[in-house]
Amino acid sequence: MIFLFHFYCFLGLHLPLRLSYFIARRIADFYYLFARRRREGVESNIRQVLAFQSQGSANRFLVKRYAKEAFYNFARYILEFCYLPKINRSNFEKFVAIKGKEYLDQAFAQGKGVVSITAHLGNWELGGAIAGLLGYPMNAVALSHKKPGINKMFIERREGQGVKIISLEKGLKKIIRVLKNNEIIALLGDRLIGDKGIEMEFFGRKTKLPQGPAALALKLGCPIVPGFLVRIKEGKLLLVFEPPILPTVTGNKEKDLEELAQRALKIVEKYISAYPSQWLIFQPIW
Q: Which of 13, 141, 154, 217 is most buried, with most CB under 10 Å away?
């Protein structure tokens, strides 16, 4: 796996991007054929999304098609992540268009910090990097990779674009500190790591998902701004920010947490529904 990451980095840094995409796609073809458990995980998640959309059973052909495209999109995601050192303030607009930046500015104007919720959709890593290049104080909560070599590479790529990394395993005090400094903390809201989650309805079925974004917003009174970087076409992406979601405090902490978490999750559902083949989670969510 470390070799594969380094190979993608070689492609991204030394070959024309169009050729790199072609080679990455061929690698994804093999990965799709032989990674049975991951293929089944992707299909399971996409099946639930499509069943929810149709309010019936999912189309088997579309499930297979979107699952295979998800493998291609994962290869593109890794390639673009490795390409990050070549992206800077003077050239990122060649690759990424931006929509809804005013919503992020509105949230910052409150002076309470911003919780940015996103998903494993499109290229979330590049989304954080672009926000950093735009001048926003970016912090991202990330799970450390089990393999030190890959973990080191990921941290270097992220921090090289001005995104400060906070370890998921031991970062709560630091997260609160950066929010009080009126900075952004970016969190993924579509997959639970560990067991400290909250049960919510996600695409029509109950499952446990992270409570962190809603819990932080309620604790500190800061807005949640959903943001997603999705793929429009090969080599062209769109970074979208949604209007701030403001916490409502009624005195019932449990109810307030569930209500705020579900409101944010509805926005996550909206974007996954629009781009199901770009939802890059390889383990079953339900």
A: 217
